[in-house]
Structure formats: structure tokens, C-alpha cells
Write the C-alpha cells for this entry.
Amino acid sequence: MLNKGDKRRCEICKIPCFERNNYFYGKRMTARDFQDEQCYFNEKRWLINRTVHGWGVVCGLDVKRTDDKKMVEVTPGLAIDCCGREILVCDDVKDRYVPLIPEEHECDLLLKEEEKQNVDQLIAICLEYDECKREIVNLPSIACDETEKHEFNRIRDSWKITPIHIPKELEYEHFCQRTKEEKEQSLHKYLCEKIAEGCQHCPECPCIILAIVTVENENVKVIDTCTQRKLVYSNQLLFDQINCFHGDLPRVTGIEWSYSEQTNEEIEQNPVSSTDIHNRTIQWADFIQKNGLKVTFNKRMYHETINKHTFLIAIITIEHSTRYRLLKYIPSEEIELIDNDDETTSAIFKFEKTWIEDELEDEKRSAITQSSEGADFEIILRGSSIFSNEENEKRKALDGSFSGEFPSGNGTQGTDFVSWFHVIS
């Protein structure tokens, strides 16, 4: 456990000044000089650990049942205590087996004696940094009347695991607990103000809680290894969390015309790649012969989310009197959804035949023929409302951000996909 001297050294502004040896020829080196050499580098590393990386469990250190129901096993792992000191629990140490007999500890909640006799009691498995002196070396006596003394040749970084009663305070300081007023300001401003208030301190009970064990009649009943466990969020762990929510997102892999009503010979004479639709110019006669516009996704999609509200095609027309660009959405006869053999989904927007007939019959009112240059068409997929269909996994919204190259996406869920093509009058 931390003694009072250790606690002072864990506070940011009470660290002794960082001072290192200045070497020169003829310098006399004493034990103090070599101790200061070690302290300089150790305390610098510990300072970075606790202020930049944080403290808690880094990896491993699970708490498991054993054949003996009156004790638990702590698996190997790594942790950083609130002073920044590394705690490495190795595989070949017997002390990893912890009997569930709470010891007197300064973190203990001062329970009444009758409360300790309850059938169910909660025991915290507490991990702490410790030092072990090793290799005794005998020192010769300096004067005739002095007896022989001994010292230790090594100091080993070690640890101890102690079963204790529930600590007084298990709530650690978190920045995310914002009030209503704080939520109205930007996240950067909130964090900036919080960090400016000062550095975090070691709590009153600085031991690392690995688990809370419920004991019934002196036997293990429940082991909770997550609720009160403080974690160190390493770069890899943060990356995995970001990747979990944003890495494997559904994306658009291509757009092309559907040719199900054309012969193979017609397809070969008029091939269209998936990238040709983007900013492509086609003749009106060719446009009305298409069976529909097909969009392919890189994953199986949740069919109910791809419909006339989320898969849109619009004509951009120019109002003659004001020169406003107006977006007129084309009615769809249906949106056909196909799950492909390669675990992808295709959605085909089929133009309503009545709309095409109206465009052909009434050239004066036709959006295509209002301008001699024809009209632009936009393809729009509402990314915030289109989701993948994955079993045993949270559905993810479409990453539709499109810069002209497939697949779409910039790593952000719920972005709209927008592309376009031009139809000549």
C-alpha cells in the first residue's frame, strides 16, 4: 500500500525537482549519486504513465474460480497504479491464488461487526505495487566493537493481491459527467476547462480493484470482474473501439444500369462499368430503355431500410423566371433488393413507367426537354437511415461519403451517398 511518502511523490506538483548527475573526470560517486540516477529515470517514466496513459488494468488479470471454492485465481497480466508504476503479474507465482479472507486494510469500509457476519458479503480483490529486497550481502564491521551487518543487493519490483472489504470510494473521476450547461458548450471547450482545473490525484483508496466477489457461507457465489475495474485505454484498444463502431461499415461499391431485360448481345455492345454512371452523359433514348439503376453494397443490407424514402433519384430543373435549380424526385415503380452470393446486396431503382410515358408524350412540360442541353440527374442514398443486416451484431449505418471513387466512405456512419449523371434532351 502507498505510504505517506509515496502519496506525496504521486502528486504532480510535489514531485522532487528532476535532477540528474553531471559527470566529469575525477568525480567521486557515492550511493546517493547512483540512487538519484535510478530515481531520475524511474520518476520520469512514472510521470508519463500516470498523466498520459492513465492507471488501471492494461491487460489480463482476470479473476477466476478454483477447485477450492474458498479462494480465487488471478491470471497473469499488466497494470499501472495511480503513481504510474508498472505491476507485472507473472505466471509462475503462487501468490496469484487468493483466499477469500478479508484482511485489515486502510481501504476497508468500516463495517459493523454484525454486518460482517451476513450470509452474503462482498470482497474486493485489490492489486498493489510492492517492492521485494533480495540477495543478502554481508558487510564487514567498520570498527572493532561493531558487529557484522548485511544489506540487500537487489530490489525487485513486485506486487501483492489482498482481499479486502468494499472500499469507501470506488467511483473514479470521469470527464464525461457533464451538466446540462456544460453539454451546451463544445466538447473541446469543456475538456479544455476541465484540464485547466488541475491534474488528477490518487484517490483515497488507490489500489487497483480486479473484481468484486460475492461470498456465501465462505464460498464463492459470484465474481464480477467488470463493474469496478478501472482500465488503461491503450492506443490499440482505442483503435479497436473506433474500428468496432466505424471500421467495418457498409459502403457503396458500384452503380450501374440493370440489364435484366436486355440480351447478352445488347449488353456486350453497350458495356457500362460501375464508375461510368458518376458524371456520365447519356442519350434520352438510351435512358428510357434501361431496366433500372442498380446500386451495390459491400455487405448484406437490412432490406426494410432501403425504400422510396431512402433511395432517391431526382431531376435537377431550372426555373426560367428565377433561374432556381429545383430538385424533382422521380417516382419509382419499385425498388428491387437482391442478396448476392458474395454476401453483398444490390438495390435496383426501377423508374415508374407512367412517368416515362408522361415525359415522352408532353415535351413542353417535360423536365428533360425544357432545356436544349437536357437535364442532370442525382442519385441520393440517405446514409443515416440505411443499415447493414448483421446477425449478433449492432446494425451499422451506411458510410456513403463519395468522392468519385468506389467504394464510398470516409469512416463515418450515416453519411449520404450522392452521385449524378446527365441525360441529353
Remarks:
- The longest strand covers residues 120-139.
